[in-house]
Amino acid sequence: MIQARQISKTFGSESQGGGGRIFPVLDSISLTIEDGSFVSIIGPSGCGKSTFLEILAGLQAPTTGDVRIDDTPVMGGLPTAAGDRGSFLKKFRFLSPFSNGLFRDNSRHNVAMIFQDYAIFPWMTVRGNILFTLKLRGVARHERNKTADYYLSLVGLTGSEQKYPSQLSGGMRQKLALARALSVEPRIILMDEPFAAVDALTRERLQEELLQLWQKTKKTIVLVTHDVAEAVYLSDEVVVFSPQPASIRYRVAVDIAYPRRRSSDEVRELTDQLTALLSEG
Prior knowledge:
Layout: E1 2-11, E2 23-33, E3 38-42, H1 49-57, E4 64-69, E5 72-75, H2 82-90, H3 97-102, E6 105-106, E7 111-115, H4 126-136, H5 141-154, H6 170-183, E8 188-192, H7 200-217, E9 220-224, H8 228-234, E10 237-241, E11 248-253, H9 265-278
Parallel strand pairs: 3-9, 3-10, 7-8, 8-9
Antiparallel strand pairs: 1-2, 1-4, 4-5, 6-7, 10-11
Helix pairs in contact: 4-5, 4-6, 5-6, 8-9
């Protein structure tokens, strides 16, 4: 279970002379996400959805509040004294650019994060990307190939193992990013606009495959998206953020049985309702 408690985030700082500027991004967000659920977060552009997702992953520290996964802290709030912040951040050296900038995940809490930009190694083959990640996670050599084959098959990349990312379509690169995230067997997958860079038809196919993977693996998935129809089609709950500084404006349960039809009256009506809520000032 993910518990975000009173999460606030500001950028900038006050100088000694009273100058400087403070930019509030998140305003006291509390959110509990149950195991095995699929939750989508929508809101106006620039409201702080991606910042909140990075705080859930432990890639950023909140200014105040904390996130717990199964009651274990991910990262607490920053100290108020500027001189204490350096030592505070050193305490969390697992947030190095190498481990979290490239892999976008955090094994400490069995969390994997997938971004729009794929974050895969262009100089490695499809199989090489998976094998390298498994090696860094300490998976035994004799298990790596079997694990890589399983997850590449799961996302439909069998036959493309020796290709390089430049030889893949955008949809296939996103499948590779998903296979790599799944290969370390996280319990939680955080996704930030993962399908935004692909065409509409590919996006629908990837949505279908993500749903199948979720239903098969029972992972907890949190998806940030600008696409209201995508949120309704995939999720069992949609969280609506307000404009910046973001707070939770609405939490809407999607009580529509799976499998869902995009053209159904239920899906269209809820999509229209959420779109109207987003347009509120």
